[in-house]
Amino acid sequence: MTNEDGEAFGARSWLFAPGDSERKTEKAAAGPADVVVLDLEDAVAEEGKPGARSTVAAFLAERPLAERDRLWVRINPLDGPHALADLAAVVPARPGGVMLPKARGRGDVEVLDHYLSALEVAAGAERGSTKVIVLVTETAEGMFTTGTYKGAPRMVAMTWGAEDLADAVGASENRDADGGYGFTYELARSLCLLGASAAGVAAVETIHGDFKDTEGLRRRAEKVRRDGYRGMLAIHPAQVEVINEAFTPTEAELAAAQEIVDLFAAHPGAGTIGHNGAMLDRPHLARARALLASGGRA
């Protein structure tokens, strides 16, 4: 997917690491995650937030600039007391991006853009260099604004959350008897996907809470990729390789996509083409090209 500036961003795995643990941040950064999200929000207790800011800022500052592109920071919500302090601490250390939790709509991203611009200029960084991923369904209000993010500054991806949404609506559980998400939370997943598509950015699936359930993670990751998601959040290093594999097109998928592209290239005036007993049209061609692009073969 590309944002309004035409910038492509494709990260399969987004691994959280608690910002107050040097050991866990070191381990996460040394692993194969496409993006490591140093967490200043849910993973850090209230009394530990000032220390976690300092830990994350120091961790970032110690890395070469080229390595920081994949080191992002989840700040605290904009409507709380910590977000500005989080940004003031970490932006001078130039993280690759910021995750904005509990977003209520596009206006929150615009406010964040203003904060980031001022801090980037003050730190001597290029204005606009800090990218943004937005958590869009963690509040009841946010559920109604998932389609408002087109053209939001800096935003390259959208993701969703089920746990904070359950808290927001007063639910005692967000799962059905069979273990799947209830209707409200499946709706949140769909709204995130549709909102990301409308905005032209990547949709990123929420966490799989049971980090020991490797097969369940694999099935879910493969399913949401078929649905249109381009990556997934992870809460444990053991989940990263599974996610990377699930969101990487197989050789068979790439070969089939290339066959479709070649067929249409050989018949440039055709709107539909018969192939293997089915009729292919232009949406099939668009999906084939997108798959090849995600596999680096566009």
TrEMBL record:
Pfam families (alphabetical): HpcH_HpaI
The keyword Transcription regulation is assigned to this record: no
The keyword Transmembrane is assigned to this record: no
Record-linked InterPro entries: Aldolase/citrate-lyase_domain (IPR005000), Citrate_lyase_beta/mcl1/mcl2 (IPR011206), Pyrv/PenolPyrv_kinase-like_dom (IPR015813), Pyrv_kinase-like_dom_sf (IPR040442)
Record domain HpcH/HpaI aldolase/citrate lyase: where: 12-237
Gene Ontology terms, MF aspect: lyase activity
Cofactor requirement: Mg(2+)
Record Gene3D superfamilies: Phosphoenolpyruvate-binding domains
Assigned keywords, A-Z: Lyase, Magnesium, Metal-binding
Protein name from the UniProt record: CoA ester lyase
Organism: Actinocorallia libanotica
